[in-house]
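Thread: Newbie trying to understand structure tokens

Hi all, I'm a second-year student working on a class project, and my supervisor (Dr. K.) asked me to get a predicted structure for one chain before our next meeting. I've only ever worked with sequences, so writing a 3D structure as a token string is new to me. If someone could post the tokens and maybe explain what I'm looking at, I'd be very grateful. Here's the chain:
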Amino acid sequence: MATIPPVPILPHAPTVEADEVAPEAIAEALVALHGKAAAVALLARLAPEPVEIRGEIGAVIARARPAQRVLVAQTIGDCTAMLDTGLIALGTLSRRGQDASAPALVLWREFHAARASLVAVLGRETA
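---
Reply by user tm_fold:
Sure, no problem. This is what the structure looks like when written as tokens:
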């Protein structure tokens, strides 16, 4: 019996080239990401964290190797997707009159772990 190899359900996503990821674009994306995280923190009844992207982290992004910047850009995209869908779900709970603080705290913890990984990538020296 002959079989046909399976066809991927999702098409291959276009890859981002290392030269296409500018440090300024990453810094802007981080600012937007932390804005969404602040909304989650508010729903989780946590104080939002002050974030200074233009300072030390901006310098770290500028010094990062192109491959690191690509990985960071992809991680920011993943985190943005996670927070966008999470905020929609939390908004639905709030509109229903339900307490969204517990699921918001879980989403905040997921974001916090992903952000720690992102910082670890930026801090890693690669040859």
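A couple of things are worth pointing out once you decode it. Helices lie at 23-43, 53-63, 66-95, 101-123. The two ends are 49 Å apart (CA to CA). Feel free to ask follow-ups in this thread.
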